[in-house]
Amino acid sequence: MDNYEPHLYELSSPGKYGANLPRLDVPATDLPENLLRQDDLNGFPELTEPEVIRHYTRISRNNASIDTGMIALGSCTMKYNGKLHEEAARYAGFAAAHPLQGDEVSQGALQLMYELQQYLGEISGFDAVSLQPAAGAQGEFTGILAFRAYHLDRGDTERSEVLVPDAAHGTNPATASMAGLKVVEVKSDARGNVDMADLRARLSPRTAGMMLTNPNTLGLFEEQIVEICRLVHEAGGLMYGDGANFNAILGIARPGELGFDFMHYNLHKTFTTPHGGGGPGSGAVGCTAALAPFLPGPRVRQRATGGYELFTPEKSIGRMKVFHGNFGMLVRAWTYIRTLGAAGLRAVSEHAVLNANYVRVKLNDLYPQAVDRICMHETVLKGQIAGAQGIRTLDIAKRLIDYGFHPPTVYFPLIVPEALMIEPTETEGKRTLDAFIAAMRAIAREAVETPELLHEAPTKAPTRRLDEVRAARQPILRYDVDAFAKLRAEGGG
Ligand SMILES: *Cc1c(COP(=O)(O)O)cnc(C)c1O
What we know:
The chain contains 16 helices and 12 strands.
């Protein structure tokens, strides 16, 4: 490609140096022979500081990020992360605290954790919260392990199945099977709800529980949610709420009151702690009093004598994470909740739902809705444009990159053919939404008139369309001058 920039390895030359090590300020000792490196660094690049900084700064500009534009990635809730939260997380008392320094000198950090437990419990209608899990998926795993422990504790040993709707996020069935339970799929009906007849047919004395996202991954509120919870409880099962879509109902509905027994919060989605790129997350969990004894520890409680302390619930399933979860994320989430207050949290969901419906209504004449209903915080459309030949949702997504937008989630949920799952979030204003809508409408026109533009896209990004199958099957994981030159000659990334 003509915008090719040399890699660090190509800039390297022997003897260049870019580090200033401080003077030794501890006694020198000899390292044992077996800890000494025996061979050289095998071609490790040698560079100056400016070369290294410019390399990484340059490639960082190839990234799409929420600080540079809207990322309407459905289900992921990529909302803007306020900079105030970053400032709070960097206060030395938080950032430099050591997890082993002891409760007495950690009272501020423990108070913050205690208050966050209380706030999350209050917002969701649950009695107890643990901040341990590091991701939504780990929160799910925590919940299903707690369900299993709960049933076994009561001597109820035959409950081996978890019901999961066909629209569910992939982590739900993965969680159930990782916990050693059998996944039983439940169908969705034509309105995008759980099919009640199918649910009744799947419930049995083997049902350990059901995992449900509400609003579901079609962006629709489960209209029978109270009845679903009642039926599962009647069969002796427990209700797990996948709280990744909590963004839609903050301050409006409380999952604990709808009938859920356990839920994870994606602090890195709903509560605006940064995510993407596999960074630290937080999948805190909340539950009813009946399940609280099984929560992972340590949790934080108030001491009778004043102040706060860590404790482990009596029948705890054990730790899910070293120390106290991803503490920096907890500081950000606390700051977010305190900044907005109760009325602000409700406004978040009202605006998230309004924005999604605005996009839905402005696009559904060209991109048919998966289910013709008012949506919650996200809308699922289909990339099936009338009059367009040979155009797939992937082509539309790639063309959006040329218009300067990160594509929405595509091909999920799996039950919708050519799915385009758009979640604008509440942090986007009308001007941005209108620009996104205009781009989507222009692409629909191109799909009919100049489809080659879509097939060739992206043309304005740092790399052209990648061969995803080849990247997965034949990955080149080490720097290799010849292999990269060959790829470039072929027009690859
Ligand atoms: C993101 C998401 C998850 C998993 O959360 P992670 O933090 O990515 O592990 C589960 N369910 C739904 C619906 C999600 O959107």
